[in-house]
Specification:
Helix 7 packs across helix 8 and helix 10 runs parallel beside helix 12. The strands form 3 sheets. Strands 1-12-9-8-5-4-3-2 form an 8-stranded parallel β-sheet. It has a two-stranded antiparallel ribbon with strand order 6-7. Strands 10-11 form a two-stranded antiparallel sheet. The radius of gyration is 18 Å and the shape is globular. The longest helix has 17 residues. With 300 residues, it is of the alpha/beta class. It starts with a helix and ends in a 5-residue tail after the last helix. It has a single domain, classed as Homocysteine-binding-like domain (TIM Barrel, Alpha-Beta Barrel), CATH 3.20.20. It is built from 13 helices and 12 strands.
């Protein structure tokens, strides 16, 4: 199974996995530690996370490579291992997925600002993303997920790199926050603008992740749906983050998140999963609600 289009035609709505950082932290990942290092040093624990989401029934699982670009890995003294880390990330998820789930290679932001706000050129951004994406494809990814983006210029640079390095489908997912003027990314990009420009740029799937809980993502997806016919990706956090005792906590449980599933689908979401704070238990509930609604003929 390596074609999301066929799977989508069969199931109508696909369920993606939940948070990786949350699960790795539960296995001992320290604050400030690069999760991608575990692909080399603690591969079994990384595979365990992937396997947990496959057992939960996810149609799509990601790779432990969110910060696997050259800029992020240099900060962790791992700049020499970009290819090895990302290939391993894809291989670990590929092994766990088998024939039961698709593997989407996770590509997060560089953490740099493009010119003129920063010193990063578009060419350097494309080259950095190309190195990571080529390794994810070599490791067996079925698609590339460019996620948690706030700058359309950087998102498009990653999309360009993906098109240059592979023929795999590409998802581009932005992160929006709600302000006085509505939803926008940190760089001022609205959901409508993101959907329009990323569709025109050639993405296969567009959408939103992180930023807020499922109630907020419902509103974001509803703003995207009228301006694109592409499948829409939606991965909300387990509620809005709260700071408790110096730690970020997400309180929305599996049942509460799943109770909003129908609204998210009605807003236009095609692929639904979880971001920060979500667990395999959240995915179990989303799968159950999806399957029940499909049986009733009301998944869409």
């Amino acid at each position: 199974m390596n074609d999301y289009r066929s799977l989508l035609e069969e199931k109508q709505i696909l369920i993606a996995d939940g948070a990786w950082g949350t699960e790795l932290a539960a296995r001992g990942l320290a604050v400030g530690e690069a999760p991608e290092r575990w692909n080399l040093d603690r591969a079994e624990q990384v595979r365990e996370v992937a396997e947990a989401y496959v057992r939960a029934g996810a149609d799509i699982i990601l790779t432990n490579s969110f910060g696997g670009n050259c800029f992020k890995l240099r900060q962790a003294s791992l700049g020499h291992a970009v290819t090895e880390i990302n290939r391993s990330a894809a291989q670990l998820s590929r092994d766990a997925a088998g024939d039961d789930a698709l593997v989407f290679g996770s590509v997060g932001p560089t953490g740099q600002f493009l010119e003129p706000l920063g010193s990063l050129t578009v060419a350097d951004a494309v080259a950095c993303f190309a190195e990571q994406i080529a390794a994810l494809a070599a490791g067996g990814a079925d698609a590339i997920l460019i996620e948690t983006q706030t700058d359309l210029g950087e998102a498009k640079a990653a999309l360009t790199a993906a098109r240059e390095q592979t023929e795999l489908p590409v998802v581009v997912s932005m992160t929006f926050d709600q302000g006085a003027r509505g939803y926008a990314t940190m760089m001022g990009v609205s959901p409508r603008q993101a959907a329009e420009e990323l569709t025109a740029a050639g993405a296969d799937i567009v959408g939103a992740n992180c930023g807020g809980g499922i109630e907020q993502i419902i509103e974001v997806i509803a703003l995207m749906r009228p301006v694109t016919e592409l499948p829409l990706w939606a991965k909300p956090n387990a509620g809005l983050p709260e700071l408790v005792g110096g730690k970020t906590v997400f309180r929305q449980g599996p049942e509460e998140m799943a109770s909003h599933f129908a609204q998210l689908v009605q807003a236009g979401a095609t692929i639904v999963g979880g971001c920060c704070g979500t667990t395999p238990e959240h995915i179990v509930r989303l799968v159950a609600v999806r399957d029940r609604q499909c049986e009733m003929g009301s998944a869409r």
